[in-house]
Amino acid sequence: xxxxxxxxEIARKTNETDIKLGFAVDGSGEVKxxxxxxxxxxxxxxxxxxxxxDLTVDARGDIDIDDHHTxxxxxxxxxxxxxxxLGDKRGIKRYASVFVPMDEALAQVIVDVSNRPHFEYRAEYxxxxxxxxxxxxxxxxxxxxxxxxxITLHVIVHYGQNTHHxxxxxxxALGRAIDEATTIDPRVQGVPSTKGVL
Length: 198
Known about the structure:
34% of the residues lie in helices and 30% in strands. The longest helix has 20 residues, at 163-182. It starts with 6 loop residues before the first strand and ends in a 16-residue tail after the last helix. It has four helices and ten strands; from the N terminus they run βββαβαβββββαβα. The chain has helices spanning 38-51, 68-86, 136-149, 163-182, and strands spanning 7-13, 17-24, 31-34, 54-61, 95-102, 105-112, 118-122, 129-130, 133-134, 152-159. It is of the alpha+beta class. A four-stranded mixed beta sheet has the order 1-2-4-3, with helices on one face. Strand 5 (95-102) and strand 6 (105-112) form a beta hairpin.
């Protein structure tokens, strides 16, 4: 893992999940994922590789019920580590808008690292599941990630025919948008806000 100041880790244990997660903003796409939800592993790998983040996740949950609690709680932990890693957000670009195609699918992710959590989601998938993974959990993950990282996050899937491709485009775009918005811009003095604080 990258030795960087913009790094945070968390351990979160409940009656439903047991999660250890480390996140480095200024990484190289180094990933180590161990969860009980293979499709989420795939999406997190895409997110980290396309955002050039270092990410470790060791998560166990009550998947005998379903994947909901595990997916939700990983979103919570990832959001909290992003927020902690960014600190006072001095010098960041703050905003990003990224389009990513995945074959026939096109997704757009718009980010404002604003300290004002908000989530808008426009996606209609052809299938309710990808393998054993419920597509409604994409919303759950992204909403909790936005809430806990205290970012404004808009996700739009413009079109697509293959549900896997559509969701993959979302996570690739999310990684690239978070990377761009959190990049240090040497022209920015302090925080990029007329309020003087984010």
